[in-house]
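Lab notebook: predicted structure, single chain.

Context: the supervisor wants predicted structures on file for every construct in the current expression panel, including those that have not yet been purified. This is the next one on the list. No modifications to the sequence; it matches the entry in the shared construct table.
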Amino acid sequence: MFASPSMRGFFDPSIHSSMPDDVIEITAERHAQLLKGESQGKMIDFTPVSGPELIDKPLPTYEAQVAEERGWRDWQLLLTDPLVSRHRDEVEEGGLTSITPEQYAELQRYRRLLREWPQGDQFPLIDHRPIAPPWLIEQIQ
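Prediction complete. Output recorded below exactly as produced.
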């Protein structure tokens, strides 16, 4: 088995007829260890001198955390949009509603917290995400 730092990948001579110039030979056992480590959350670092090794994944940048949390927040709002629309339609019809007026108020408080969260001091820390009402999961499925 061979590893290529420039291609950040592995090459098996029984499969690959050509390989990059920078390949480093590794044992099949080492290859298996690397893949196992990767499946357990590590990252394979393809160093040109010593060959591939397992390292901890780098922490995401602040910008990446912001983008991910904004995406999560936007998804939560999108998931709850149909429930808001359904409740408003049911109220306008004057019939029974799928959620109670108290649940609707709680839903709107949650959605307001979602919108305000990016301006808060704890954004984008995942532990400080607004918490959905416990009954909501049953309604948006």
